[in-house]
From TrEMBL:
Organism: Pseudohongiella acticola
Any one GO MF annotation of this record: metal ion binding
Cofactor(s) listed in the protein's UniProt record: Mg(2+)
Stated name of the protein: Phosphoglycolate phosphatase, bacterial
Coiled coil spans: none
Pfam families found in the cross-reference section: HAD_2 (PF13419)
Record's keyword annotation contains Transcription regulation: no
Origin: domain of life: Bacteria
Length: 239
């Protein structure tokens, strides 16, 4: 990967579910409700966590053992999406521990941060608004804005283009192999969020990330060592 040198302003981009925001409580709530409505025993919390980053279709497949082309799948999928939209009105989702501090440090240092997600805009925007993040986020790229989603680099390249940032001087943080694949393909530095909703395989050490962070605090430490700031505005690590 390209090493960041010089005085260029860097951007830090995050995946949404399982990286920036702990959205599992909302997905767990709606999946449990859907299973109850259908008279099906819900999956374990660990199974849900390992599947959330793969999207709503994967959650339906997990809970009901149906392939996407199976009869009845689409009805369950649409019901789950409708229930999730309702759930966002009283969301249980929260920023991961220390994330608000990290975002504040980036903002104070004049470093743009944004979100690049495979979550559709109709869900991403309300969620960001509910958590009072929409006005702080410099860029939000959803599947609605591109022709190809992650692991293709198009969404990340679009984000960097709109921010006026060189991908080689930017970082992408994600909790799924496709995040790291997309970031690497875009020529960015990549951080694998080991605290997120990791799939059961492949092992995170095999994703090809430049760095693996067990916590948001570790991301802050990594950024303080690798981002280029002005002398007046350095990113400091706080526990």
């Amino acid at each position: 990967m390209t090493t960041m040198t010089g005085n260029q302003t860097a951007a830090v981009l995050f995946d949404l579910d399982g990286t920036l925001i702990d959205t599992a409580p909302d997905f767990s709530a709606v999946l449990h409700q859907l299973c109850a409505d259908q008279g099906v025993t819900p999956p374990s919390d660990n199974a849900i966590l390992a599947t959330v980053s793969s999207g709503a279709r994967a959650l339906v497949e997990l809970a009901f053992g149906l392939r996407p082309d199976a009869q009845g799948f689409d009805a369950l999928f649409q019901t789950l999406l409708n229930q999730y939209m309702d759930q966002l009105q009283n969301t249980r989702s929260v920023l991961f521990a220390d994330m608000d501090v990290l975002l504040g440090q980036l903002e104070a240092s004049g470093i743009a941060w944004g979100v690049v997600t495979n979550k559709p805009e109709r869900f991403s925007i309300p969620l960001m608004q509910r958590l009072d993040l929409a006005h702080r986020c410099s860029i939000l790229i959803c599947p609605d804005h591109v022709s190809q989603t992650k692991p293709h680099p198009e969404p990340l390249l679009l984000a960097c283009d709109r921010l006026g940032c060189d991908p080689a001087h930017s970082i992408y943080v994600g909790d799924h192999p496709r995040d790291i694949e997309a970031g690497n393909a875009a020529g960015m530095r990549t951080i694998a969020a080991a605290y997120g909703y990791l799939p059961p395989f492949p092992a995170i050490s095999e994703w090809g990330a430049d760095h693996i962070s067990p916590s948001v605090a570790d991301i802050a430490l990594y950024l303080s060592n690798h981002l280029i700031f002005s002398a007046q505005k350095g990113l400091t690590h706080e526990n």
